[in-house]
């Protein structure tokens, strides 16, 4: 595979990773909003969980614990995705440098091919 093809594939992968990161961030923000709403509950409030088409009563403690676990999981996924993004960005950068060197070498080779031969002495 040529560096240009590898660069193209890596750029596409990087785009997908950024998209995944954005979706995770949206989920993270939504769950933090739920957590914030939970903090406003009084012991008399009832919490329901959607199970299929039905709402089932659930304890506040269990609901809060589930949201906290979900936030923790999403944060770990965000961290993992960010490290993948950084690694892909570094590889993209090194491929850009390799492609630039390759193009410079091609230009130099073309210039040498077009240069007149040195005079004979």
Automatic annotation (TrEMBL):
Transmembrane residue ranges: none
Coiled-coil ranges per UniProt: 7-37, 64-105
Keywords linked to the UniProt accession: Chaperone, Coiled coil
Record lineage: Eukaryota, Fungi, Dikarya, Basidiomycota, Wallemiomycotina
Domain of life: Eukaryota
Pfam families linked: Prefoldin_2 (PF01920)
BP GO annotations: chaperone-mediated protein complex assembly; protein folding
UniProt protein name: Prefoldin subunit 6
InterPro entries per the UniProt record, alphabetical: PFD_beta-like, Prefoldin
CDD domains from the UniProt entry: Prefoldin_6 (cd23161)
């Amino acid at each position: 595979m040529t560096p240009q093809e590898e660069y193209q594939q890596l750029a596409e992968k990087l785009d997908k990773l950024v998209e995944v990161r954005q979706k995770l961030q949206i989920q993270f923000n939504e769950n933090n909003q739920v957590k914030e709403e939970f903090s406003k509950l009084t012991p008399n409030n009832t919490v329901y969980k959607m199970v299929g088409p039905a709402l089932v009563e659930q304890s506040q403690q269990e609901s809060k614990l589930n949201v906290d676990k979900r936030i923790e999981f999403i944060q770990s996924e965000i961290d993992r995705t960010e490290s993948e993004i950084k690694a892909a960005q570094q590889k993209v950068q090194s491929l850009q440098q390799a492609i630039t060197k390759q193009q410079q070498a091609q230009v130099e080779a073309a210039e040498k091919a077009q240069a007149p031969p040195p005079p004979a002495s």
